[in-house]
Amino acid sequence: MIRFLRGQVLRRGEGAIVLEVGGVGYEVSLPPVVEAALPSGEGDAPLELFISYHVTANQPRPVLIGFLREVEQEFFERFITVDGLGPTKAVRAMVRSVHEIADAIERRDAAFLQRLPGIGGRSAEKVIATLHGKMGKYALLREAAEPPKAPEADFREEVIEVLTRQLGHRAAEAHRMVEEALRRAPHLDSVEALFQEVYRLERGGVE
User: Fold this and answer.
1) pTM (2 decimals)?
2) Could you give all domains of the chain from N- to C-terminal order, each with its CATH number?
3) Could you tell me which of 52, 50, 41 has the C-alpha nearest to residue 8?
């Protein structure tokens, strides 16, 4: 399974690029929000994409979907766990940033979700029912991530590491967010629960 590609852009099309890696050209579909964020020009610095790879009996031709950050790929693969929201439909729907979509899910904002292409009222309700309470991490994503730093080990530091390395927060800010969350909710027992508490506090404690 292909999870990452690094190579030169050979061709750009609407919603897709061809990326040359080791003499092989890979067609990679791009969500609109990712396509808009791509560096301009072709044949310059190599482009790195995190890949969500899909092939099924009904769709034997592999579909590669590219993302600039691993956390966006991770969000996408949770997004498509919603019943009826397959990869092709989900790609078209991603015209807004990951953090905006995740935030709308956490706020149960069905009206926002219905404005995404291909997401009607029923689909919006399914998205909220399936993913609400699991999107705090992605709602914290900043537009420009800082360069990665070395991962750290314990429970608290794991969340701080993700906030800084993947979600674009400064180290001091990440420490403050995590310490405040643990002070308010010392019973937290998982990384996901801590992300949810950090997200809740950043929104002013609103459920």
Assistant:
1) 0.74
2) 4-67 (2.40.50.140), 70-138 (1.10.150.20), 144-202 (no CATH)
3) 41
How far is C-alpha 38 from the geometric centre of its chain's CA atoms? 15
List the structure tokens of 181. Answer: 């969350």
Residue 8 to residue 4: CA distance in whole angstroms: 14
17-73 pLDDT per residue, tens? 999 999 999 999 999 999 999 887 555 678 999 999 998 767 778 899 999 999 999
Q: Three-state DSSP class for 10?
A: strand
Asked if 198 and 140 touch (Cβ cutoff 8 Å), the reply is: yes
Sequence-distant (6+) residues with CB within 8 A of 155 are: 191, 194
| HEC string for 60-106 | CCCEEEEECCHHHHHHHHHHCCCCCCCHHHHHHHCCCCHHHHHHHHH
Residues facing residue 20 across a β-bridge: 8, 25
For the stretch 10-33, pLDDT in tens is 999 889 999 999 999 999 999 999
